[in-house]
Write a structure and sequence with these properties.
about 280 residues; alpha+beta; Creatine Amidinohydrolase; six-stranded antiparallel sheet; 5 helices; 16 strands; about 25% strand
Length: about 280
């Protein structure tokens, strides 16, 4: 679940001030030891398994509410707790966003249709630690334009992860995502960003998907980040629905969202929410 970027918080404070509290006041970056990372691996594996299960159920005719029910039942059946349900009042276990919806879509009676794209963001708590990941999936046969958006958003995630290396900086992740996305003609959402993660869903530091390299906190082993490009087919501008959660593109064009929870290791990035190599979503 993405976080509001600190620089936009005053404008959104009326309806999302609580989510912004972590960005408005300075907090330390919490480094995890091996025991904590083991718990985060378990949480991440449960999140990945949940998303794989949902991928197999996405089809024309299913409702977003049904997908949310499947997610919650699966997480609880495997000794986890949904991270999102009740988080600052969010009413569901998964954020499910369709077509022009960027993030934080509230599941309900909406049915998926052939040609839709659906972003599913899931979080789970195991042993007091969170895992968080997202995928955008095709519903049946989709247009080549939609498929290209999904592919390039997915690839941009891995461009960012490749920079999640001991000694680099947060800005190196941000720059890698932005450079790849804009080189392929898409727009990076500015208001929503990735974040640190661990005992809390949203920890420091924030992880934007744009900005200059060589800036921000230095990456060191034990840091755990939710890296999550949110990429629009058209303009980068967004708007928020009356439900005060659902974020959509302002021009009504498609958006895609992919996310992994990543630990900074001594020898490179460690993806805690990785799918089996032969089952990657794109």
């Amino acid at each position: 679940m993405s976080s509001w970027a600190a620089r936009w918080l005053p404008a959104w404070d009326d309806f999302r001030g609580r989510l912004g509290s972590l960005a408005r006041r300075k907090r330390r970056i919490y480094l995890k030891d091996e025991q904590e990372l083991a718990l985060m691996r378990s949480a991440g594996a449960l999140v990945a398994d949940t998303l794989r299960r949902l991928r197999d159920r996405v089809r024309p005719g299913i409702t977003t509410g049904e997908l949310d029910r499947i997610a919650e039942e699966y997480i609880r059946a495997h000794n986890g707790v949904p991270s999102f349900k009740g988080y600052h009042g969010f009413p569901a276990s998964a954020c499910i966003s369709v077509n022009e919806q960027v993030v934080h879509g509230i599941p309900g009676p909406r049915r998926l249709h052939e040609g839709d794209v659906v972003s599913i963001d899931v979080g789970a708590i195991v042993g007091g630690y969170h895992g968080d990941a997202a995928v955008t999936l095709p519903v049946g046969k989709i247009s080549e334009e939609a498929r290209a958006l999904l592919y390039h958003t997915y690839r941009s995630l891995y461009e960012g992860i490749a920079q999640a290396v001991n000694g680099k900086r947060i800005g190196d992740i941000s720059f890698a995502v932005q450079r790849y996305v804009e080189a392929h003609g898409y727009s990076v959402v500015r208001e929503m960003v990735g974040h640190g993660i661990g005992r809390s869903m949203h920890e420091e530091p924030q992880v934007p998907n744009f900005g200059p390299p060589g800036r921000g906190p230095i990456l060191v082993p034990g840091m755990t980040l939710a890296i999550e490009p949110m990429i629009n087919q058209g303009t980068a501008d967004i708007e928020v629905a009356a439900d005060q959660w659902t974020v959509s593109t302002s021009d009504g064009k498609l958006s895609a969202h992919f996310e992994h929870t990543v630990a900074i290791g001594r020898d490179g990035p460690i993806i805690l929410t990785r799918w089996p190599e032969n089952e990657e979503p794109i």
